[in-house]
Amino acid sequence: MTDINPDDKDVSEHVRISRRKFLGSSAILAGAATTGAAAALLTPAAQASTGNSSATVELGELDEYYGFWSGGHQGEVRILGIPSMRELMRIPVFNVDSATGWGLTDESKEVLGENAPLNGDCHHPHMSMVDGRYDGKYVFINDKANNRVARIRCDIMKTDKITKIPHVQAIHGLRVQKVPYTKYVFANAEFRIPHPNDGRDIDSPENYRTMFSALDAESMDVAWQVIVDGNLDNTDCDYTGKYAYSTSYNSEGGVDLVGTMRDERDHLVVFNIKRIEAAIKAGKFTTLPGSDVPIVDGRKGSKLTSYIPVPKNPHGINTAPDGRYAIANGKLSPTATVIDLHKLDDLFAGKIKPRDTVAAEVELGLGPLHTAFDGRGNAYTTLFIDSQICKWDIEKAIQAYNGKKVNYIKQKLDVMYQPGHNHSTMGETRDADGKWLISLCKFSKDRFLNCGPLHPENDQLIDISGDEMKLVHDGPAFAEPHDCMMVHRSKVHPRKIYKRDDPSFATTVARAKKDGVILEQDNKIIRDGKKVRVYMTSIAPTYGMNEFRVKQGDQVTVIVTNLDQIEDVTHGFCLVDHGVGMEISPQQTASITFTADRVGVHWYYCNWFCHALHMEMRGRMLVEKA
Ligand code: K7E
Ligand code: CUA
Ligand code: CA
Q1: Does pTM top 0.90 for this prediction?
Q2: How far is the CA of 263 from the centre of ligand 3 (A)?
Q3: Is the CB of 574 under 6 A from ligand 2?
Q4: Is the predicted pLDDT of residue 20 greater than 70, yes or no?
C-alpha cells in the first residue's frame, strides 16, 4: 500500500472502498454517492441549494450557535462555534488545567472538594430549560468515572458545583427536566452494585441494584433516588414534566458480555415524577448508610415506574420536539422503537399494557445508537455499524409499522466513521430548527494526518436544512465527545468581565474581609502562625508586589485581584518550580496555596499574555530560613 499514489483517482477510490469494507459496512454504493455529494458541496451553488447561507463563517464574523461539547474522559466541556466548528473555549470540570489553575486554585478546590479525584469521564452536556426551551443559565455534565454531576454557570462559563451521587457507580445518562422548568437534573447510574456496598453480596450479582437519581438543579443536592430492575444507560424526559425514562441494556443483570446480551428484549423504564414526589412526601422511603437521600423502590410492580419491553440492548433515548414521541435506539437490534408519550397517562392509570405504548418498531440499519430531530417530523439516527446517518419520517414509519406500504427512509448518508451520538441545532427543545446536524464519529481512521497510534475522533457537520443531508465539514476532536448540544447564540449571554461580587470567589472575599484587607487596593501580607496570606493586585503590566518575604515551611496563599477593567486583559500568576499557576481575568480574584519549602529566591511571573511588557510582569518570593 505504501507506493499508492494518492492522486490516482481509481486507486484512492479503491482505498476508500476497502476502508469501508474493513469497517464492516456493506454500503459501497452509498460510499461512491457520498464522494460526489461531498465534492459538490464545496461549491457555493451546492450550499445555496440546501437553503443554508453557508457553512463558512467569514473572517471576523461570529457563529450562529454555541456548541457545548463533552470532553469525554479528558474531563472537560468545550465550546465550539457552529457552523465554523472552531473551538472557542475549554471549561475544565473534572480535570486539572494548568492554564486556568482549575484543580490548583483554592476556589476550584472548593468546587471540586479538597480530596477530589482529578480525572473524569464526561458524556452528556445539557442546558437548563424553561417550558422546553433553553434558558441560557446552566450546562450540566456527568462524570461516569467518579459518579458525579457538575454544573457550569453560563454567565462566566465556569464550573460552580459538583455533586457526588451516593450509593451508585458510573453516572452515565444525564438530562434535565424540560417542563415547566429544570427543577431536576436526572442521572442514570449504569453499573449495578450491592446496596449498601459494604462487602456484602460480592458473589451474589442477583442482589446487585442500581438507582435513578434526581438532583435539585439549583442546590445541586440529590433530591431522591429510585431503585430499578436492570441497569440504566441513557435517559430523557417529556414535554409535560410528568415523566422521565431510561434505557436499560442489562435487564438480564449480567456481569459479563454474554450475560448482558442473553435476552431479545430489554426495557425502557418510565419514572412517574409526581408519584415519586408524593411517595417521598408521604414518608414512604428508605435511606442507606452515609447519606440521608430518600430512596424509593421502583422495581417491577411498583406504581412509581413502568417497564416497557424494547429490543435488544437499547442505547440512546430521544424525545421528539413535538413532545409526542420518544425514540429508543436498538443497538443490537437494527430497529428504533417509537414510544407514544401521549399513552403514558393511560399506562400509569392501568388502562393499557406497557407494550401498548409502542407506536412502531422501525427497521433502520445496523447499530442504531442515538436519534436527533429537525422539527419537521424527521428523525436522524446514527447507525454505528453501518457508519451512516439514517434520515427517516416518523409518521410514515408508524404507518409502515401498521401495514401501509410507504417508504419511511428518506436518506442514508455515509459518515466517517462509526457515529455514536448525533445532535441537531436546538433539537432537544421545542425550538428545533433543523439547520445543522453533528455526527460524532468514534473513529477518524485516515481522514486526518497521522498523529501516531492514538487517533482523534471526527465530529462531522451536516447541513440538514434542505431535503438532502449534506456533509460539509470534518472536525478532529480529542478524546472523546460522546455528546454535544447546539444552542442559538440569542439564548446565551456570558459576561465579558467579572462582577466584583461574583460568587465564584466569595469565600476568598470573606477571608480578606476577616483579614482587614480591601482586595481592590491593598497589597499586604497577613501572617497567621505558619499560614501566610499574600494579597496583591494586578494592573497590566505589574503586580501590586514586586517581592514578598516568607519563612521556610510557611503555608503560603497568594491572592491576586485583577484590577484591569478592559475586556480580554487576563493576567496569570505562576510561581516557578512550585506547581503554582492560575488565571485572573478582569475584575476577578483568584488564590492558590502552597508550601514555601525551599529557602532562596523564587520568581513568579504572569503567564497570560497581557501587555507589551508582559514578560516584565514578574516578582520574587524570598524564602528565609525559619
Ligand atoms: Cu457514548 Cu451517550 Cu455515553 Cu452513546 S454515550 S455513543
Ligand atoms: Cu499580566 Cu501577562
Ligand atoms: Ca440485554
Answers
A1: yes
A2: 6
A3: no
A4: no
